[in-house]
Structure formats: C-alpha cells, structure tokens
Amino acid sequence: MFDGANTIVLYEELAFQDVLPVCWRTLASAVDAGTAAVYNDRNMRLLQAREAMDQLGPAENADEASPHAADLMRLELKVNLLLDLVGQVLAANRPRPPPVPVRFNSLGAVWKSTPPLPETGAQGIVEIYLHDALAEPLKLPGRIASVTPDGQIKARFAPVGESVADLLEKLAFRRHRRLVAGSRQPTRGG
Fold first, then answer.
1. pTM
2. Which of 140, 52, 131 is nearest to 90 (CA)?
3. Contact 118/24 with Cβ under 8 angstroms?
4. Rounded to an integer, what distance in angstroms lies between the CA atom of residue 54 and that of residue 166?
5. How far apart are CA 185 and CA 106, in angstroms?
6. d(Cα 186, Cα 113) in Å, to the nearest integer?
7. DSSP characters over the chain
8. Between 166 and 179, whose confidence is greater?
9. 62 vs 67, more confident
10. Is the pLDDT of residue 17 over 60?
C-alpha cells in the first residue's frame, strides 16, 4: 500500500524531481512584465512539448487486437528513436550545464550547484532543460531564497501564470502517479 513517503514536495506543493541540466543566471534587476510574458509563452510551449513526449510510447490500454496496433507501436518506437537522435545532436552542438538533482514546481526550485554560488536574495533566472530533445530550457524568473555552504540552492519563482502553473502541476502529478504505481508493483524474484 502506498503511504505517501515518496511524495516529492516543495513549498508545500507537489513537485517534479529529476536529474537535469540546471543553471542560475543572476540579473541586475527583476524581470519586467514584457520579458516575463515572453518567458511564460516559451515555457508553456516547452511544457506542452514535454507533455506530448511523455505521451509517446505504448498506450496504457492499447488494444493489441486492433489491426493497426503493431504498426502504431513500430511508428511510436521510430519517433522515440528520432527524438533521441535529435537530442544527441542538440546536446553536441549546444553545450548545457551539467545535470544535477533538481526539484521544482510553479513556486520554486531546489538544486545542487558548484561555485561560484549566487547570493541569497539575488534576482535572476533559473534555467531547467527538461529533455535532451528540447533545445530551449524553461526560464523561470525569481529570487534566491537560500544557499547552503555545500551548494544547495533554493529559489522562489515570480508568479509564472496560470497556464504554466497548470502544466508544471501536471508534470509533477504524472511523475508522482508513476512513483505510486511503481510502489504498488509486486517485486519479482525471490
């Protein structure tokens, strides 16, 4: 039975956790409303693309008796291989920060970094690369809430907009649902 022990939270909200390329870009001042709107539009498109990528692969209730089920599965495999190849080409041509453990939601993020570390209170942008096949990172304006001596950084985001917040919530929920389903699977062996 799932006891909630593996539920990932940040700022008392469900959060997404993974090992992804993340970086902080300090800015001299807060992001203006026009730039924030551009970031929100881009973030929404990136999250929609990531959502579509999550839906690739065998359908949970695929009707294997369907006359086209095998064709669809082969096509999905080819699309996945193509996305992996595109991701490798992008990674080779556009260097990214090193992947680090990161936890984030629409309110903020926590990740581990190396020096030089930002100062608590610094304003800037957290950039999170969601997938190798997506060229651009999420760009989330905010402020550094805390920095520990060992490099743990906690940022609080400026409001991201309702559409982006909903998509981030869906991303976190899908990951949470997979964790719950995985914890309910009987272990093999023995």
1. 0.78
2. 131
3. yes
4. 16
5. 30
6. 37
7. ---STT--EETTEE-EEEEEEEEEEE-SSPPPHHHHHHHHHHHHHHHHHHHHHHT-SS-TT--TTSTTHHHHHHHHHHHHHHHHHHHHHHHHHS--PPEEEEEE-SSEEEEE--SSPPPTT-EEEEEE---TT--SPEEEEEEEEEE-TTSEEEEEEPP--HHHHHHHHHHHHHHHHHHHHHHHSPPP--
8. 166
9. 67
10. yes
Would you state the structure tokens that stand for residue 110, as one six-digit string?
């926590």
Q: Which residue has the tokens 């390329």?
A: 21
CB atoms within 10 A of CB 176: 19
- The token pair at 116 is 């030089």
Mean pLDDT of the chain: 84
Decide if pLDDT at 60 tops 50. Answer: no
